[in-house]
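Write out structure tokens for Glycoside hydrolase family 32 protein.
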Amino acid sequence: MKLTNTILSTGALVALGLGMALTTNTVHADSVTSTAHESIYHLTTKDGWSNDLQSIVWNSKGKYYDLYFLHSKTADDPNEAGNQDWLHTTTKDFIHFTPQNSAIKADGPEAPYTWKSAWTGTVLVNDGSIKGVPKGAQVAYFSGLEKHDGGSQNVWVAWSSDNGRTFSHVLNNSAPVIDHSWNFTSQNKVDERDPAVVYWHGKMLMYTAEGSEFGVYQSHDGIHWSKADPNGASKVGMGTYLRGINSQDSTPVECPALRTMKMPNGKTKQVLFFGAKAPHAGQTTGTYYIVGHLDNNGLFAPETDAKRLDQGSDYYGANFSGSSDLSNASRTIKSMGWIGNWNYTANGVHNDEVANSEFTKRLGSYSVARNIELNNDLTIKSTPIVGHGKDIKHYNNVSKDHPINGANASSNKPFTNGLIHNLLDVPNLSINKAYNLHFYNTKGNYKGRIYIDIWQGGDYVRFNYDPSNGWYNVKSRSGELDKGRNGQIASSYYNSGVMNQKTINLKVLTDKNSVEFFFPNGQSYTVARFNTNQKQDFKIFTEDPTNGNKVDVTQANLSKN
């Protein structure tokens, strides 16, 4: 579950606005099942609102993955107490998903200290450690609001007798297994949520989000928990999990996840993933990771600085496959994130560019799944999982002298290094696209900036990239955010680390609600968009100081079918 975050609007690079096309039709999403903001090939909530992913768990009986995500009855007021439950779906390939069902009810059983909203947590398979649960059954640890005390945050546990479809057997007499008010739990006595539970050295560990720190607890039966470090505060502080990043105003930290990963050289490390923001470092709310190991008590000890898992503003509440037993290392795990940002996604989204319609009642999509690998240099590489494209088209050897559907163009606008030339300008394309872009220079390293403009009606996502130093900017505008509670929000710029290359390969995935960029060094950038139009224009411009820049383009339609 999320609290309001702050986003920093910066940008030393601002992409060009070289024209727009298409006029969107007004769409009024007046029901919780409206298709106005339903993605074509990305997982989207079946109704209402959704955000955090809870778990991605391999189901050995069904030979598929169970996915769980946080859901509310309506996007009008997604945080309304009593409206929040878990939805469940399954997938074998992360392209096709089964119909969604409610897995944890929004309202707990009538008992003292039960919950009235189910928030973020973890699903794992009982290895025999959890008291009162059959071995092999799925168990959910989840946070939420307590029903009878005004809504404080605590952690509950329930198990499934139908192979992970629902969690109806609540343990501990429906009372919390971690309570924010205990003298060894949350130090601010407010935050106690997002439990991440793993097996480690013959016991269980739980990391919970407690404002500016993670509380770390241990258990031998899954019901009774104590401090993992019996002689200390048993907290992982901001200076640890955000090491190397200016952490001023970075609270709250959320959505921890721990995995053991194996590098190509055979060595293993623990990786701590989490949600945070670093506004004074120019970083919006997003998903981070840091690599290290656990100390003798199970507290995370970093060996690197923290880094963004996805550079964009809209990859949050992420979760991961991989073993919940930290003695098992994975070479590759899978990740998906919520395409959203609490600074604007939850503050009223209209269904028309002029923002005259009512706020949508259905909103909630997820990124394409990514294969996540830990490199020998302790950085993470992300590779998207997409299906086979249809209606494939190729544009090869496109140069400024032979643009597609355009002519040479120049601009005196700021933030450019010289003349801007059109390479590709294809209007009226479907929104569900995969683009593979191969930029190259016939005379040496690629010189001059690359500009990609994606127009969806009057809304845009603009990409401005300088291959000489690796800096790029992704800037977007959605008219649907006008007249909302916070209005328009700009993106920040990030260093892709890809520079001085003779060739540059970019993959761009577009859908109604999102644009995802994937770079050759394994980084990614995800940005949300909110237009309801089914068509887009795709434009590529370049500077060409050496008169040798070219691009090969392959585009394909993607779908769930």
